[in-house]
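Here is one chain, start to finish.
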Amino acid sequence: MNELLPPELLRMLLLAAALATLAMLVTLLVQRTTRRGRERRRAELDAVHRRLVLESTIAEDDELPRLLARVRALSGAERAHISRTVFMMLQDVTGEAADRLRQVAAASGLAPIAMAAARRRSAVSRADGAEALGRLAPEGALELLLGLSEDRDPEVRTVAVRALGGFEEPAAVARVVQALASGSGVPSTVAATALLQQGQAASDHVRLALRDPDAGIRRGAARVAGLLQVPGAGRRARRAAPGRPRVGAARRDALARAPAGARGDRAARRDRDRGWHDR
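Its structure:
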């Protein structure tokens, strides 16, 4: 029969267990208190500064500089709060209001933070930076995103390609088209959605991509051409050499969706192209 532990050792073990439990409870209490304090502080800042952000989106052009000056004059914590608010709002806001929010973000100092994150060694930081650059579109963002779209990490490449959908420059469109390629590491749905976001600016690149040697690019371009209703897409799809069954199906889908405007009615086609930008 095993001997019982000495009473002194048993008391020490019980004391150690009690202290460990107490430490865990204290840590949990401190974490909850700190979190609630941060939430309270954010609520207070939101009550004070959300109106300033909203006013900036609807202000007259001559009033905007005064509002941006108020943002710049805030403390670091207050500007950081406004940065978070603007970043979240840019998920759902488009058009002129989004342009105003980007100016508020610039005044709050968010753009340099995003650009610094995009250059960090951590893949998570680079992906976060790419997402922020896509929403903020500060000067130099396009060059950084083009580099990130070829990042060694597939998640970073995917986020960068998605962010490039907000840019209509030829280099951005061409890089998104290349992301349709088989083996690019970027989901074809991400690249296709980015092309749809680029709208009319992507039309010529998509039409040329129907002849690309890569089956993935041809397949993705055919589907996007049908959705964008690219002029001449039907003719190019018919002329393309037969490929894999999936490519052929995508081409037939493009033909089915090809606009009547490919044979006329250019004004209606322009209206539809504008609609893609508004959505």
